[in-house]
Amino acid sequence: MGGERPKGRKAAKRRLKENANNPIADLVTTQMNSLTSTNVEMSQVFKEFLNKSNEDKYHKRMIREQKLRIQEDRIMMMDNSTMAQEQVAYIECKTAEILQRKLGDSSST
């Protein structure tokens, strides 16, 4: 039992030897290996692009949020004693919206 070979082993070796001397098989194997490595490289480039894109989106969102906070702070600090009644009503409405949003944000965290 120890001297027996698994079935198909001889045929597999024969096919391997036949393919080793086949220039077309060598060319196809080389091209497939080249395509595989190119595919891996392109996947890496695409992943890097996505990471950069996500970082840019995050950065832009942070800038927008910072600008909004600055505008809100400016509204909250306005002196409405010299304003017309319509302007005072508008500023009070905006102030109430800002406070409501800030209170809602702080209670959810």
Description:
The protein is mainly alpha-helical and 109 residues long. The protein has helices at residues 9-20, 23-76, 85-108. The longest helix is centred in the middle third of the chain and has 54 residues, at 23-76. The chain is rod-shaped, with a radius of gyration of 35 Å. The chain starts with 8 loop residues before the first helix and ends with a helix. The model has no long low-confidence stretch (mean pLDDT 85).
- What is the count of β-strands? 0
Number of distinct helices: 3
Shape: rod-shaped
Helix fraction, binned, reads over 70%
Radius of gyration: 35 Å
Q: What is the N-to-C succession of helices and strands?
A: HHH
Can you give the mean pLDDT?
85
Strand content: under 5%
Describe the main β-sheet briefly: none
Low-pLDDT segments, ≥5 res:
none
Distance between the first and last residues' Cα: 72 Å
Give the structural class. Answer: mainly alpha
